[in-house]
Description:
Elements: H1 10-48, H2 60-72, H3 81-86, H4 92-128, H5 133-151, H6 156-167, H7 177-183, H8 186-189, H9 193-218, H10 229-258, H11 268-279, H12 288-317
Helix pairs in contact: 1-2, 1-4, 1-12, 4-5, 4-6, 5-9, 9-10, 10-12
Amino acid sequence: xxxxxxxxxxxxxxxxxxxxxxxxxxxxxxxxxxxxxxxxxxxxxxxxxxxxxxxxxxxxxxxxxxxxxxxxxxxxxxxxxxxxxxxxxxxxxxxxxxxxxxxxxxxxxxxxxxxxxxxxxxxxxxxxxxxxxxxxxxxxxxxxxxxxxxxxxxxxxxxxxxxxxxxxxxxxxxxxxxxxxxxxxxxxxxxxxxxxxxxxxxxxxxxxxxxxxxxxxxxxxxxxxxxxxxxxxxxxxxxxxxxxxxxxxxxxxxxxxxxxxxxxxxxxxxxxxxxxxxxxxxxxxxxxxxxxxxxxxxxxxxxxxxxxxxxxxxxxxxxx
Length: 320
């Protein structure tokens, strides 16, 4: 506390802590949104394009022109570089709602769940870990992450609408969120929710657990919010790779469920059974390397920023 500053009551301290966690994680969501939304739009438009862009014998210039037409769409040929760049921000309202709420919920909410678990089951965790308090702390971080990950499916409709606005903006033009929720089947917006929860639980367990392991075992930190930006980056990198790897099998099943025709009655377990029979267990890790290279940086970046900014805001609000 700074000299001359009146000491805070427990209520004010708790309020400052909540505000710091919300502000830090929201900052990460905003920075990630404007840094990665154009990249995400480019990827979604290329994945959704039904035709062939590259063809044998085409020059580099012609191939580049083909990619530009697919990526820029109506802004292709626009002389303004700014308008071409802004064309990569369709559905920004849905994207902002989803990304900022997701980061505030996940990165800002996990510490509260962790503290509740430690308060109620801390002694049990210590006994389970043979009295190793640091190991028990890592376990509570991981379990809290898994619980928050499962609850994340509440935001699934915003993610669906974000993807639709990137690939088919005409279908949503002039329609607000509440009108869409009223006219569209809510079950369609939550398609694959069960497998999304199954993916999020182990993925978030690994993300927060590995992150805590690096900070506790490698850097020997007692208060994880004291980590430097570099330490947060390394811990987030290890956690991000572990999360994507562990969640990969569930992600493959979830993706296949969500890309089937709406009339398909095939269950997730039937999809899993057919995949194992026809493609083998290795198919559960299809696309893992590209996912780590493409999704990894975004997750690592936002997790690093969230952890660093939560620490910054906590110290600022505490007057340190």
